Amino acid sequence: MSLLNTFARALCLTLGLVATAPQAHEITAGDLTITHPAARPHLPNRPTAAYMVISNDGAAGDRLISASSPAFGAVELHTSLEQDGVMKMIQVDGIDVPAGDAAVLAPGGLHIMLFQGAKAHKEGDSFPLELTFEQAGAVTVTVMVEKIGHGSGHGGHGHG
What we know:
About 10% of the residues lie in helices and about 50% in strands. The protein contains one helix and twelve strands.
């Protein structure tokens, strides 16, 4: 495991994205390593978000340009911003994954919003999520549903 991936795993633990080490999982696609894709439990037809760390051990950057899931009617890339003292979530057209660095998708920052889920996902469930990158192409990950620390980042905040 590279130093970058060790850092990414430690960052996941710090942010509360990994409840326990045995639950941690990662997927490698070319130079990218996607560490611990996770989402909070949610009710049917209520939005939730997916979080993870995407590390790039390569010499060239990549960019996450879209995501989709058969478990949700709509999936969008988002960031959280404070505007006039109010936290808002804003859709973005992509998430950069710089060479030799990582993109951290975490509560209060970059994340993948999941809308129109036909069923509730409770703690312990999982669902597939396809991530599409400019260079690495399509990568399917399994998102684990679990408690995630640092507040929801979604309750009561407006979408821009």
